[in-house]
Specification:
Blueprint lengths: L7 E3 L23 H6 L3 E2 L3 H13 L4 H20 L6 E6 L3 H15 L3 E6 L8 H8 L3 E4 L7 H8 L3 E5 L11 H16 L4 E5 L21 E5 L11 H5 L1 E5 L13 E3 L2 H7 L9
Parallel strand pairs: 3-4, 3-6, 4-5, 6-7, 7-8, 8-9
Antiparallel strand pairs: 1-10, 2-10
Helix pairs in contact: 3-4, 4-5, 6-7
This protein binds NADP nicotinamide-adenine-dinucleotide phosphate.
Length: 287
Amino acid sequence: MSCLPPHLLARDSLGGHDPKVGEALPGLTVVPDIATLKSVKMMKVVTAEQMRWIDRECIRRGTPAQVLMEKAGKAVAEETRRLLGTLEKQQILVLVGPGNNGGDGLVAARHLHDWGAGVSVYLCSERAADDANLELVRQHGMTCAEAAQDKNLEEFDALLASSSCVIDALLGTGKLRPLEGVFRQVLAKVNEAKTKNKGLRTIAVDLPSGLDADSGAVDPDCLYADSTITLALPKLGLFTFPGAERAGKVTTVDIGIPDYLADEVTTELIDADWAGSVLPSRPLGGE
Ligand SMILES: NC(=O)c1ccc[n+]([C@@H]2O[C@H](COP(=O)([O-])OP(=O)(O)OC[C@H]3O[C@@H](n4cnc5c(N)ncnc54)[C@H](OP(=O)(O)O)[C@@H]3O)[C@@H](O)[C@H]2O)c1
């Protein structure tokens, strides 16, 4: 028996087969013609382990990891620009962690800077000495502060106070343990700033930091994101409470991973488009 929330559905729960015209789906009385049903695809939803496998497989089949990161970061920057409406007069603070989530944040920072936003980068942990995306951030003249050099997080406080938007690229599917230290402190400060300044926008890359990708469990200081830009495929924890409450509006961006790599994934998301395609239309005055 599935313990997924109602808007998540394993294909098996549809009986493991495509419904026939006129055949009832569980909880529905009418199935529209099969052409309509197939025209609206359900979105697959993955666990962290499934996403890691899909990433690895994509790289093994010839897409270099740096290419995936460039596509991911650029897609995050494009979606951020769409969410903010304009980059003019925006001051964006990008929080960067140690792994690929942080790498995506560095790429997004560079593009947003090149497209006219004011962008600062805050490194919450050390990155590799030969990190090309960090080097590019420095070459492009962005403010780049490091928690390790920031006594009492004073520089962080100043950057946060002058920001109109925070992009959280601290931790994604690689979160392995509870938040602590500077990760916990900066996220608590961003959440607090958001309660005082409703205009401060918060955008998470892939997952709000502190959210468990599989269970949706959250650390107490997990970011409250207005929006989460999730990469390639949405992660289960974004739709499972309490995580769903921290994720805000979830958008999924294409980073060039072929669809067929997710063929084996059987958990799918019922969204408004799909529901609209299977529900019978009713007269406005119908009960
Ligand atoms: N190829 C790509 O560019 C690509 C493709 C798809 C997705 N992504 C992105 O990359 C992410 C996955 O990258 P990733 O596997 O490198 O994982 P990550 O989420 O970026 O973080 C992993 C790093 O965080 C550290 N860590 C784990 N828990 C922590 C905690 N509570 N506090 C502080 N540090 C912690 C781990 O190091 P230690 O345990 O050693 O401290 C590890 O270095 C995805 O969420 C997505 O954003 C990238």
